Prior knowledge:
By secondary structure, the chain is α/β, with parallel strands linked by helices. It has one domain: Class I glutamine amidotransferase (GATase) domain (Rossmann fold, 3-Layer(aba) Sandwich), CATH 3.40.50.880. Helix content is 31%, strand content 26%. It is built from 7 helices and 14 strands. The strands form 4 sheets. A 6-stranded mixed sheet has the order 2-1-3-4-14-13, with helices on both faces. A hairpin with an 8-residue loop joins strand 8 (129-137) and strand 9. Glutamine (GLN) is lined by residues 18, 60-63, 66, 93-94, 151-154.
Amino acid sequence: MASTVKIALVFPDLLGTYGDSxxxxxxxxxxxxxxxxxxxITINAGDAIVDDADIYVIGGGEDGPQQAAVDLARRDGGIxxxxxxxxxxxxxxxxxxxxxxxxxxxDSDNTPGLALLPVVTxxxxxxxxxxxxxVDPDPSLGVALVSGYENHGGQSELLEGRPLxxxxxxxxxxxxxxxxxxxxxxVVASYAHGPLLARNPGLADLILxxxxxxxxxxxxxxxxxxxxxxxxAERIAAARRIAxxxxxxxxxxxxxx
Length: 257
Ligand code: GLN
């Protein structure tokens, strides 16, 4: 039974460009709000990657740091060992790509990933995917619409398994598939920055609840719940508004809602 939830924040100095390190803070805060002890272990480039954490949080970044991150992670082996024993993973954008079989950067068309997820990422001819994203999550999760912000050139094709959800606004994994991310019993992956868990605390609670031995009671903070719900409503409305505007102007075919 985990007495303290150990949250490993992997390479925020390489994969922190889009604010995804906030996901680790949200996980810790949501645990502590229920009197569950939580510790964030920050692993910077060059540090050994602990292999005994309960949750690994990996964020997005530019091509160069992404390449450095996968090289370091491969040499270290800690992520692969943690994955093998089914620790929980939250992987965003570049973090999602490096857990896959292969990805492209501006320098290379085929950089091997850590081969932990059945996904291959390629740079297509299409324009970069930038903007609000709204995802209808897999119904088995029982969480509300997922709101975020995407910014990626990679197009990620799932070779098997299921995505986090269906894309309502934005692009997600590929222009063609209309789905975002990847979902399994120990992985939540997405293209959504935000940070994702600040915008979608239901996902934070889901990941925490997956840690063996953790019992999450009710939040008991009505004020926090209200301000989160107001912020979510504002972002979801903004995404729908932008999608409508783009449709009216015939700007891009990236939105369907
Ligand atoms: N460099 C990757 C891409 O452009 C990932 C970008 C990101 O993490 N936001 O596809």
